[in-house]
From TrEMBL:
Stated name of the protein: 3-oxoacyl-[acyl-carrier-protein] reductase
Organism: Colletotrichum shisoi
Origin superkingdom: Eukaryota
Entry keyword annotation includes Oxidoreductase: yes
Family of this protein: Belongs to the short-chain dehydrogenases/reductases (SDR) family.
Length: 245
């Protein structure tokens, strides 16, 4: 049995999609055959990125609702394609109607439900705490932490109503600064530390999985470590979620 779930035909929602990390993830996911929905604040950047993504090769998922998601010009009504929607994930400006549209039912057999959520939205402003304005601090916490919390909550609520054959995944982007302090990073580091703390909370009863890892699952992790040159001196907790409890 293969340990890795294929991304082909899985619906992946990426926040902060046109940023460096978000755009790289979106491009890689699309290249692996995923149906990608991009979220971000600037429509022109979302549109440009959406047009550059490798085309969606599979028609097993339905397209997003035209009323709530703005699709690439190459979209055809009879075939799903990558889409984008303008949205600010920060605490005081989220629009759940946009998210509801991505999960709406489009046919009797298939839905546009989200299989993978990547919380890549984030901002970085570095200055000493005594020089940080209340507005800057709130902006950092709202975007980095609260946006991640609310998007993850939205996803977690819907994970309980999923089809049994479609596993869901939430990926959060934190920072080394959350655990290793540095001058001028206190508010940013605090927002990222909050993400780590939230990510360690089990969202389902099956975390931890309650079984030993299979050799093929360890092998998949070994392939990642061998291929990723930035995973230098990397300690990977491959334990089915046990270290989170």
């Amino acid at each position: 049995m293969a340990a890795l779930l294929p991304l082909r035909a899985r619906h992946c929602l990426i926040t902060g999609a046109y940023g460096g990390i978000g755009a790289a993830i979106a491009t890689r996911f699309a290249a692996e055959g995923a149906l990608v929905t991009l979220l971000g604040r600037k429509e022109d950047k979302l549109r440009d990125l959406c047009a550059r993504l490798p085309p969606f090769p599979d028609s097993r998922l339905a397209p997003l609702s035209a009323a709530t998601a703005i699709s690439s010009p190459r979209v055809r009504e009879d075939k799903p394609a990558h889409s984008y929607a303008v949205m600010d994930v920060s605490a005081d400006s989220r629009d759940d109607a946009v998210l509801d549209g991505t999960c709406s039912i489009h046919s009797q057999q298939r839905t546009g439900q989200i299989d993978v959520l990547v919380n890549a939205a984030g901002i970085a402003q570095f200055q000493l705490l005594q020089n940080t304005s209340s507005r800057t601090a709130r902006e950092l916490v709202d975007t980095n932490l609260m946006g991640t919390i609310f998007m993850s909550r939205y996803m977690a609520q819907r994970m309980k109503r999923r089809r049994a054959d479609r596993d869901a995944c939430i990926i959060n982007i934190a920072s080394l600064l959350a655990e290793k302090g540095s001058p001028g990073t206190s508010v940013y580091a605090a927002s990222k530390a909050g993400i780590i703390a939230m990510s360690r909370e089990p969202l389902e009863k099956r975390i931890p999985l309650g079984r030993l890892g299979r050799p093929d699952e360890v092998a998949d992790a070994a392939v990642f470590l061998a291929q990723n040159t930035y995973a230098n001196n990397c300690i990977l907790n491959l334990d089915g979620g046990l270290s989170a409890v």
